[in-house]
C-alpha cells in the first residue's frame, strides 16, 4: 500500500498582488519503505510539497493521503495526532530547544506524546545511542557540533517510531563528512526499521543515496527516476 499519495496538488502563494506558484498539479505515490529524494533548484516547490505531505500546510486543491488517512478530512486535533505519532520531521536548522539538553529535547516530545516516565527514559537512551550520541545526553545544543545537533533532531524524529520521516534539506548546514554520516544513518534506519524517508535537497551527494529521485521545477514534477544502487 502507498504510504503517501498526493493527487493534483496545487498551491499558490499571494504576495501583494503577485501570485507565486508553490505546487502545480503534483501527483506522487510513495510506497512504505521507500527512500525518496525530492530534488530541484531553489524555489522549485520542495519545501511546499514536504509541508503538504506532513500536514504543515494545506494545498489550495488536490489531496494528500498519509497512512491511509486523507489529511483534508481530519480535524485539527486528528491532524496534530498524526503529525505527533506517525510522522517524524527533520529540518535544515535542527530546530532544537536551546535551553534543553539532548536528552530533554528528545524526551520533551515523548512527554507530549503521553509516554510514561520510565518508558521515556529507556527509549531516549536507546534512540540517542542509535544515532551515535551515547555519552552526550546531558549536553546542550550549543555544546554539540552541527552534525551532532542534527542527530539529536533525528533521535527526536524517530523516538515515536514513525512510519514516515520527512527531512527538509537536512544536510544544508553540515560539512561534507557530517552530511555523509547523516545520510548513512538515514539509510540504516530505512533498511533496518523500514522507515519511509522523503528528503528534499539540492545537494547532489545526498541525491546519490536515494533509490528514487523526484525532480521538481517551478512547482511541477518533471521527473521521477529509480536510481541504480
Ligand atoms: N509563505 C510563502 N509566501 C510566499 N511565497 C512562498 C511562500 N512559501 C513558498 N513560497 C514560494 O513558493 C515557491 C516554492 O517555494 P519552496 O520553498 O517550496 O521551494 P524549495 O524548492 O523548497 O526552495 P529551497 O531549495 O530554496 O528551499 C518559491 O517561489 C517560494 O518563493
UniProtKB/TrEMBL annotation:
| Family annotation (Pfam families) | ABC_tran (PF00005)
- The ABC transporter domain, residue ranges: 4-228
CDD domains, per database record: ABC_MJ0796_LolCDE_FtsE (cd03255)
Recorded GO molecular functions are:
ATP binding; ATP hydrolysis activity; transmembrane transporter activity
**What keywords are assigned to this protein?**
ATP-binding, Nucleotide-binding, Transport
**InterPro entries on file:** AAA+_ATPase, ABC_transporter-like_ATP-bd, ABC_transporter-like_CS, ABC_transpr_LolD-like, MacB-like_ATP-bd, P-loop_NTPase
Q: Which domain of life is it from?
A: Bacteria
Gene3D superfamilies recorded for this chain?
Answer: P-loop containing nucleotide triphosphate hydrolases
Q: How is this protein annotated for GO cellular component?
A: plasma membrane; transmembrane transporter complex
Q: Which family does it belong to?
A: Belongs to the ABC transporter superfamily. Macrolide exporter (TC 3.A.1.122) family.
The protein's name is ABC transporter ATP-binding protein
Amino acid at each position: 500500500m502507498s504510504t503517501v499519495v498526493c493527487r493534483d496538488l496545487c498551491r499558490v502563494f499571494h504576495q501583494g498582488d503577485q501570485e507565486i506558484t508553490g505546487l502545480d498539479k503534483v501527483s506522487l505515490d510513495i510506497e512504505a519503505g521507500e527512500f525518496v529524494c525530492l530534488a530541484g533548484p531553489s524555489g522549485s516547490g520542495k519545501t511546499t510539497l514536504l509541508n503538504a505531505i506532513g500536514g504543515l500546510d494545506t494545498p489550495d486543491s488536490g489531496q494528500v493521503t498519509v497512512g491511509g488517512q486523507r489529511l483534508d478530512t481530519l480535524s485539527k486535533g486528528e491532524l496534530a495526532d498524526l503529525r505527533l505519532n506517525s510522522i517524524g520531521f527533520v529540518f535544515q536548522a535542527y530546530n532544537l530547544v536551546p535551553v534543553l539538553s539532548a536528552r530533554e529535547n528528545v524526551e520533551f516530545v515523548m512527554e507530549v506524546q503521553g509516554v510514561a516516565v520510565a518508558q521515556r527514559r529507556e527509549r531516549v537512551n536507546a534512540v540517542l545511542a542509535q544515532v551515535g550520541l551515547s555519552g552526550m545526553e546531558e549536553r546542550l545544543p550549543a555544546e554539540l557540533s552541527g552534525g551532532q545537533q542534527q542527530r539529536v533532531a533525528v533521535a527526536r524524529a524517530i523516538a515515536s517510531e514513525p512510519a514516515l520521516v520527512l527531512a527538509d534539506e537536512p544536510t544544508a548546514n553540515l560539512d561534507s563528512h557530517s552530511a555523509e554520516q547523516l545520510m548513512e544513518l538515514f539509510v540504516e534506519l530505512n533498511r533496518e526499521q523500514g522507515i519511509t524517508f522523503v528528503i528534499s535537497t539540492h545537494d547532489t551527494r545526498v541525491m546519490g543515496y536515494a533509490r528514487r529521485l523526484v525532480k521538481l521545477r517551478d512547482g511541477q514534477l518533471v521527473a521521477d527516476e529509480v536510481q541504480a544502487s
